[in-house]
From TrEMBL:
<dbReference type="InterPro" id="IPR036291">
    <property type="entry name" value="NAD(P)-bd_dom_sf"/>
</dbReference>
<protein>
    <recommendedName>
        <fullName>Saccharopine dehydrogenase, NADP-dependent</fullName>
    </recommendedName>
</protein>
Amino acid sequence: MEHNILVIGGNGLVGKTIIRILKSRNPHLSVFVGGRKGKNSGSDLKIDVTHPETFHIIKENKIDLIILSVNDKEDHVLRFAIENKIDYLDITKPTPDLVRAYTIAKNRAVQSRIVFSSGWMGGIVNGLAKTLADKDADIQEVKLFVYYSVKDLAGESSAHFMAENVAKPFIRYQNNLQVPIKHFLDSENFNFSFGIGIREAYNFDVPDLYILNQIENVPNVSVKMTYNSKFITWLLGAFQKIRLFNILSLKERRMIFGSSGKGDQSVFEILVKSNNEVRKLSLQSTKGQAELTALSAVLHTEELLMNSHENKVYFSHQLHQPSILLDKLKAYETINIQSVS
């Protein structure tokens, strides 16, 4: 069976990477590139998420699945996909936008697969966390530690999110209570794997906080992040303590968070507490976060295309058997995974 896949934002860093990996693994697929500068010729489609009148080209090309890798603040693409019964996979949304989009989708009569994959690195953390707990065990706590390198290739969206939200409180969960916190406060020493060593890690907002507590019913969830530069990590913490981010303009904050290097590793570590024991999984992407995010999106796409999933709203980890997802990640040449009980 032929499938027509559209990657909106396909000219961006992550979008291009999705297309490269998807085509290399599935050469039979027809993959279209959607962007504001498209020409509506061949596989290059002119689509602007802020102008829904450009979406007619999606129906004209009989698209089966939309992969959204650009920020759609007003959820125009989501609404279009639901109304036209087109499968949809979104990897772009920060927590507040994800909650709003999920509410929209849950309140509609959905007749396609609507998949939210905006958790850390393409929404794989929640699935991997389940591999660290016994099948029947309740998970009491999940802690995610993120190592972020300023030398890594990075797109604009993550930098813009940090610039827009660094001075705003967000929520972590403690005994199912919502605890307001801010980025780059409450440091905790953590011994990262893959030769990184002990680093101070600070509060960091990712959608997994919401997903793990509100969808997976984990009562205690926290996320902390460190930069590859200890000085930068300390400096951002100092800026937050003196409330400097509150007085800087959005443009100035974007300058702080907008750096992108030529490539470096990306690492995250998951600690899961169940039955009063703690297990850890460490994942390294040697080609960085864009490669891992794109790979995750491709794995979700392949799962939608190859296996039967009923028409409804999903978070991407709900598509997979956790152990199979783990094996697929391990099989990818630039991914290294270590597990410790």
